[in-house]
Specification:
single chain; SH3 type barrels; 4-stranded mixed sheet
Amino acid sequence: MSLVLLCAGLGVLAWAELARAPAPAGRTAEVAPGETVLAERSGQAMLAFSPLRDYEEIVRRPLFNETREPDEAAVEDETAGPSVTAGQADQLTLTGVVISGDKLIALIRDGRAGRVHRVQRGNSLGEWRLEQVEKESVTLRKGESERQLTLYTKKAPAEKPRRAARQRARSERR
């Protein structure tokens, strides 16, 4: 009983001490250039994010890849411009689409070069110009020729025989 009273008394003293401590008046948190402040309350930054370049390693290692190993094909920046040499349209595969506000970007793999290129709508990949970006497809144009690429999706691995047999047995019991 005396131990409980002692703990309660120490708790009250600690609370009283903290309540008496003056709040820092007019002080704001320092935010480094390039950081983004998420929220502010009474002049103090609550949370700040580092610049996007600090997260390159996270972007490079795909979250939904079991090993989180970087894709073997290097991702080229869309600013590569005319130096990018793309294969014929039949060598191009749409591997991803990024739609963020008014920014439309296609991730296109060049099968011959083995690289993935980020191409923004209106920009070109070799002789092919990216005309249209949809959720699951893009349209490329080269002069009068037009080619539509649909999003490449990996097929799910075949179910392991044991698992399939167990699931059949469970469903038969029901």
